[in-house]
Amino acid sequence: MTPYDNGSSKAAKAANERQIAARPTRDEAEAAVETLLRWMGESPTREGLIDTPARVVRAWEEFCSGYGEDPAALLNSTFEEVEGYDDMVMLRSIRMESHCEHHLVPILGTAHIAYLPDRRVVGISKLARVLDSFAHRLQTQETLTAQVADCIQTALQPRGVAVLIDAQHQCMTTRGVHKPDVSMVTTSFTGAFQDDRDLRDRFLGEARRG
Ligand SMILES: [Zn+2]
């Protein structure tokens, strides 16, 4: 699945199936890493590098484990017995690890996720797992932020969702313009967080504290 593909449209599904059918083998992936090493001027047969292609492929398996997951399914089990609690539920300062789709280098930062329940609530760790599921794919921060908000809104149907991600892109901090202290902030709001300025300000205030 591509980061932009939520699997909902027929065309997207067909494209996804083609992609899976054309998926290279693990051996081919390792050979590609070996090619990259030789291109760098390295000797892939020297002791330190002999297992590197296999290690790199295993690492990428972990970095991109989100492709095999359905984030919406994580929100399937909900609770209604919350004694009428109907205020904002917020998970603050969640560590976020992703990889940029332009350079394949890390995007590291913090996410804040809130929703305004409509009777149903989810176990809070599920919000972090939804983030991880989308983050463990090749991403842009903008896409990731929107995907997390849309997924929670669609699957849980709360009165609103707010997501703020504050992250550093290593393609900008360790290469290119080399600006180590710059972080990028993206937000996505749905429902009440779009319409109610006070609610949005409370979320942003809490996020700022984190
Ligand atoms: Zn990049």
Overall SS class: alpha+beta
CATH topology of the largest domain: GTP Cyclohydrolase I, domain 2
Q: How many domains is the backbone divided into?
A: 2
Helix percentage: 40-55%
Estimate the mean pLDDT confidence: 92
Cα Rg: 20 Å
Give the distinct bound molecules: zinc ion
* Sheet with the most strands, sense and barrel status: 5 strands, mixed
CATH superfamily of the largest domain: GTP cyclohydrolase I, C-terminal domain/NADPH-dependent 7-cyano-7-deazaguanine reductase, N-terminal domain
Number of strands: 7
Distance between termini? Answer: 32 Å
Please tell me what the overall shape is.
globular
Strand content: 15-25%
- Regions with pLDDT < 50 over 5+ consecutive residues? 1-7
Order of helices and strands: HHHEEEEHEHEHEHH
Strand order of the largest sheet: 5-2-3-6-7
| The level-1 CATH class of the largest domain | Alpha Beta
Q: In the CATH classification, which architecture of the largest domain applies?
A: 2-Layer Sandwich
Tally of helical runs = 8
Could you explain how this protein is built, in words?
The protein is α+β, with helices and mostly antiparallel strands and 210 residues long. A five-stranded mixed sheet has the order 5-2-3-6-7. Helix 2 crosses helix 3 (52-63) and helix 4 crosses helix 5. The relative contact order is 0.14. It has helices at residues 10-21, 26-40, 52-63, 124-135, 141-156, 170-173, 192-195, 197-209; strands at residues 78-79, 89-100, 106-116, 121-122, 138-139, 160-169, 184-189. It is globular and about 65 Å long. The site of zinc ion has 5 residues, from loops.
